[in-house]
Amino acid sequence: MGRRKRRKSRALLRPRKVIPKIFLCPRCGQKTVKVWVVNDKETKEKRVIVKCGSCLLEASFQYIEIFQPVDYYHKFIDMYYEGKLS
Length: 86
Known about the structure:
Elements: E1 22-23, E2 33-39, E3 46-52, E4 58-62, H1 69-82
Antiparallel strand pairs: 1-2, 2-3, 3-4
């Protein structure tokens, strides 16, 4: 006589945390701020543009390889609260 077969329990997989691609605007409060990497044709270097889709608040930064979109967004927020963007 044998024992009853036990069910094998599956390990619960937690979803990976994903860095967001759309952010909150400091001026209008809507989730419409996007970050783009653009090639400048005149200077032939990469630029990063952070722009709100609803209130059109915009900033441009020099491209740095180790930075991610979140880093540029935080630079954008810092500039806004320092009063450098209007």
